[in-house]
Specification:
The protein is mainly alpha-helical and 305 residues long. The chain has two domains: 104 residues, no CATH class; 175 residues, no CATH class. α1 runs antiparallel to α3 and α4 runs antiparallel to α5. The protein is globular and about 70 Å long.
């Protein structure tokens, strides 16, 4: 491939186009998996009338804009969510392609693309159904460990050509899986005891295991607290606005509004935290854990063993 196509000015456009294609497939997964349908058969068809959709009416982003959100075969209105997801995945892929054009290696690029795609699928499904399919959380965790074992450079452990670097990288990934999922499990357990009801679902625990497998234990811990901070940052103003709006419209009993103490999916915020970490925040965040590492390196009790 000519070198001009690998420059920061060109490569992100290829990443964006590829991302929109994967975003279109993501829409299929998010729609079919929760209802137990195959993501392969039948081929793409209209949700309104079931008519098969030809390829020229299934072009990511362009088709929705050209048809103004309307199906080409019936009066079905295609949700804006489909278009937004295609754009979002395209932008994420373009960003990682930009990093690759700077100094990211190919293996790290592929890992980040796969991880971000899994996380965005989880965001969509969990937001709509309050469920996280095991094929993404557990399957992603297993794949993350195998990926890190096979390519130790993901954890910057390709220090030699022996199997030692592979085992060290795989162990680091497994450690991230175990620390992340167990920490969130105990946070959920203590919250359950304190508030008298379930605060975190089992799917969130599995999802954090997947995040830890790809991002390591530092990324998993950041996803917990970063996700909680992000959720608070987004939901608190929305709840305050809705409460004020309800008072002005005398509609305080609306079931569609967020209420204090209502259940909200936590998985999307964990997933965003994981994407942010692998997106470059790790360079800043990892230094936050230096005091913890210093403690374990210098504790006399540990040295005695």
């Amino acid at each position: 491939m000519p070198e001009i196509f690998l420059t920061p000015l060109v490569l992100p456009y290829f990443g964006f186009v590829l991302g929109t294609v994967f975003g279109s497939f993501l829409n299929v997964c998010a729609h079919r998996i929760p209802i137990g349908k195959s993501i392969i058969l039948p081929s793409s068809h209209c949700p309104g009338c079931g008519t098969s959709i030809p390829w020229f009416r299934n072009i990511p982003i362009i088709t929705w804009l050209y048809q103004k959100g309307q199906a080409g075969c019936c009066a079905f209105s295609i949700p804006l969510r489909y278009w937004l997801i295609e754009v979002s995945v395209g932008l994420v892929f373009a960003y990682f392609a930009y990093l690759y054009s700077l100094d990211l290696d190919l293996v790290s690029l592929l890992a980040r693309l796969l991880f971000s795609w899994i996380m965005i699928v989880v965001i969509v499904i969990d937001y709509e159904t309050m469920l996280i399919p095991d094929r993404f959380s557990v399957g992603g965790a297993v794949f993350g460990v195998l990926f890190c074992f096979t390519f130790p450079e993901l954890n910057e452990m390709g220090f030699d050509q022996t199997w030692l670097s592979h085992f060290a990288s795989g162990f680091n990934s497994l450690l991230g899986l175990l620390i992340g999922s167990s920490l969130l499990y105990w946070i959920g357990t203590l919250a359950h005891i304190g508030f008298g009801r379930e605060a975190l679902g089992e799917g969130d625990v599995k999802l954090l295991g997947c995040i830890g497998a790809f991002c390591g234990w530092k990324g998993a811990i950041f996803a917990i607290f970063g996700g909680a901070f992000l959720g608070t940052l987004l939901l608190l103003p929305l709840m305050i606005f809705q409460k004020s709006f309800n008072k002005s419209t005398e509609n305080e009993n609306s079931d569609k509004n967020l209420q204090w103490g209502a259940e909200v999916p936590f998985g999307p915020y964990l997933a965003i935290g994981g994407i942010v970490y692998l997106g470059g925040a790790s360079e800043v965040i990892d230094s936050w854990f230096d005091p913890i590492l210093w403690f374990f390196d210098n504790t006399s009790l540990l040295k005695a063993f």
